Amino acid sequence: MARVVVDVMLKPEILDPAGQAVAGALPRLGVTDVASVRIGKRVEIEFTGEPDLAKARQLADALLANPVIEDFTVRVEEAGRAAPAGAIDAISGVDPVEPDVPAVVAPRRLDPGTPLVAARPVEAAAVAEPADGAAPADAVPPAAPAEGEGGDGQ
């Protein structure tokens, strides 16, 4: 089967908040040499016969990309072409090039009702409520209304 790949990206003048969010998170992961990140999408179309680039361009323009804010490229991918080294199959979590090498596995989705645990231990006394219902000793009292505000109607 012939495969046509359509890569869709926001035009350079269009703000990419998802890319900015990723770029902002990279320093927290220790990656400091990335200047910018742009996020797009890849669409693979498999034709039963010869790849029809004109039809793929028509699909991309009418359905896969918004030509007002996105650019796209269309290309034929050779049959049997291996995935790039280090690519991880999102479903199986296996590297398709080197399946025997352990890959990063995505965390499983939590079931509803699963209790969440704090990342750092919290002192039990700091979060425990007194048995008599009184405010804890370290509780901050509510702020008094400023002069001219509040409940006396003046």
TrEMBL record:
Native source species: Actinocatenispora comari
GO MF annotation terms: ATP binding; phosphoribosylformylglycinamidine synthase activity
Region (Disordered): 127-154
Keywords: ATP-binding, Cytoplasm, Ligase, Nucleotide-binding, Purine biosynthesis
Protein name as it appears in the record: Phosphoribosylformylglycinamidine synthase subunit PurS
One Pfam family per UniProt: PurS
E.C. code: 6.3.5.3
UniProt KW Cell membrane keyword: no
SUPFAM superfamilies assigned: PurS-like
Superkingdom field: Bacteria
Family: Belongs to the PurS family.
PANTHER family: PHOSPHORIBOSYLFORMYLGLYCINAMIDINE SYNTHASE SUBUNIT PURS
InterPro entries in alphabetical order: PurS, PurS-like_sf
Gene3D superfamilies: Phosphoribosylformylglycinamidine synthase subunit PurS
UniProt function note: Part of the phosphoribosylformylglycinamidine synthase complex involved in the purines biosynthetic pathway. Catalyzes the ATP-dependent conversion of formylglycinamide ribonucleotide (FGAR) and glutamine to yield formylglycinamidine ribonucleotide (FGAM) and glutamate. The FGAM synthase complex is composed of three subunits. PurQ produces an ammonia molecule by converting glutamine to glutamate. PurL transfers the ammonia molecule to FGAR to form FGAM in an ATP-dependent manner.
GO biological process: 'de novo' IMP biosynthetic process
Entry coiled-coil feature ranges: none
GO cellular component, one term: cytoplasm
Annotated localization: Cytoplasm
Catalytic activity as recorded in UniProt: N(2)-formyl-N(1)-(5-phospho-beta-D-ribosyl)glycinamide + L-glutamine + ATP + H2O = 2-formamido-N(1)-(5-O-phospho-beta-D-ribosyl)acetamidine + L-glutamate + ADP + phosphate + H(+)
HAMAP family associated with the record: PurS
Listed pathway(s): Purine metabolism; IMP biosynthesis via de novo pathway; 5-amino-1-(5-phospho-D-ribosyl)imidazole from N(2)-formyl-N(1)-(5-phospho-D-ribosyl)glycinamide: step 1/2
Enzyme class: ligase
UniProt biased composition (Low complexity): 127-147
Subunit structure: Part of the FGAM synthase complex composed of 1 PurL, 1 PurQ and 2 PurS subunits.
